[in-house]
Amino acid sequence: MQVHYGIDKLPSFKHPIVTIGTFDGVHAGHRTIIQRIISLAKEKGGEAILITFEPHPRFLLQPKHDLKLLNTMAEKKELLHSLGLQHLVIAPFTLAFAQQSPKAYVEDFLLRYFVPEVLVIGYDHHFGKERAGNFEFLNKYAQAGTFELEEISKQLVDASHVSSTAIRKALASGEVATANTLLQSSFSLEGKVIRGAQNGRTIGFPTANISLESSHKLIPAHGVYAVKAHVQDQAYKGIINIGHRPTIDNNLALSLEVHILDFDQDIYDKNIKVEFLKHLRREEKFNSLDELKDQIKKDEEKARAFFNH
After folding, report:
1. How big is the CA angle at 108 (ends 96 and 17), to the nearest 5 degrees?
2. Coil, helix or strand for 189?
3. C-alpha angle with apex 255: 251 to 62, nearest 5 degrees?
4. 110 near 119, Cβ under 8 Å?
5. Is 10 part of a structural domain of the chain?
6. What is the DSSP letter of 70?
7. 217 in Cβ contact with 171 (< 8 Å)
8. Do 200 and 289 belong together in one domain?
9. Residues 146 and 214 in one domain
10. Distance CA 285, CA 68 (A)
11. 156 and 43 belong to one structural domain
């Protein structure tokens, strides 16, 4: 997959089959649209192109909305690559871009830079100032022969009962197995391993403290989860605790601490990716470090039993 940053130096695409959207989560509903443009590109000997935007439009249009993303752009690129997409275009989203008319959006952006042979959109696609552009507006161009237009129906997109909102709700409740089913992949976090207080090491459970690569990334509900940790191209079994460490210091800062099973390597400053697989328990405050240590042992036993099955 080729990734294009910006729109000023795009190649001349061959029979461009285009779709547009934020595609946060790249969930089952999104994949219906993506698979359609890939299929059309094969039929027409063309190229499948997905246009997305950075930053996410809501960050500019609704600055007071505390939006948390299911995917960082890096994660989105990895997921789209795995689906077989040929081109990802990351277009800059600005207030000036948002304020252009639907006509300017189509003619000065879409036609000027992409010249689509086929445009595929979801049933709720809107664009331009005050989201005035829609399927009916685009269909005028299609009827004039400017491009072919396909709208993926609500019934088809929603057939799997998937939405980014439903996934966010599942993660907010710690229901990572449900979220993973809706996503058709494991929800994950990525960041760098940093030095913490090393409290885990003092009670026999050393942990890797994660500093996330994006402050906009959604974090699942506080608690303990069975995870798969990827470090230096290797995958390991582990457990992660998300919370404020109420038993040790009731730290006000949120911490993400991964205990990698059967692992003893120095991975400070290394990148780590954590895939969430199963919710084990909620965050709790214990009366003593001994009680906490006993509970972590139980968490590890639960995680090992999960991995064994």
Report:
1. 115
2. strand
3. 105
4. yes
5. yes
6. S
7. no
8. yes
9. no
10. 27
11. yes
The one-letter code for the residue type at 113 is Y
The CA distance from 67 to 181, in Å, is 22
What CATH number did the domain enclosing 236 receive?
2.40.30.30
Residue 173 domain-assigned (yes or no): no
**Residue 175 forms part of a structural domain:** no
pLDDT exceeds cutoff 60 at 161 = no
299 and 239, same structural domain? yes
Helix, strand, coil % in the chain, rounded to nearest 5: 35, 30, 35
**Are residue 129 and residue 36 in the same domain, yes or no?**
yes
Asked if residue 125 has pLDDT above 80, the reply is yes
pTM of the model: 0.89
Of 69, 51, 41, 39, the closest CA to residue 3 belongs to 51
Q: What angle do CA 62, 122, 107 make, to 5 degrees?
A: 75
The pLDDT of residue 213 is: 85
Give me the number of domains the chain comprises: 2
What is the C-alpha to C-alpha distance for residues 7 and 97, in angstroms, rounded to an integer? Answer: 13
Burial of 177 (0-12, 13-18, 19+ CB in 10 A): middle
What is the per-residue pLDDT across 229-256, written as a single tens digit (0 to 9) for each? Answer: 999 999 999 999 999 877 776 666 899 9
What is the distance, to the nearest Å, from the Cα of residue 202 to the centroid of all Cα atoms in its chain?
Answer: 35
Residues 126 and 213 in one domain: no
The answer on 27 and 122 residing in a single domain is: yes
**Token pair listed for 255:** 């911490």
CATH code where residue 103 lies: 3.40.50.620
pLDDT at 78 over 90: yes
Query: Which structural domain, as residue segments, surrounds residue 63?
Result: 2-162
> What pLDDT is attached to residue 273?
96
25 assigned to some structural domain: yes
Where is 292: in which H helix or E strand? helix 289-308
| pLDDT value, residue 29 | 85
Q: How far apart are CA 238 and CA 29, in angstroms?
A: 30
Give me 156's structure tokens: 């088809």
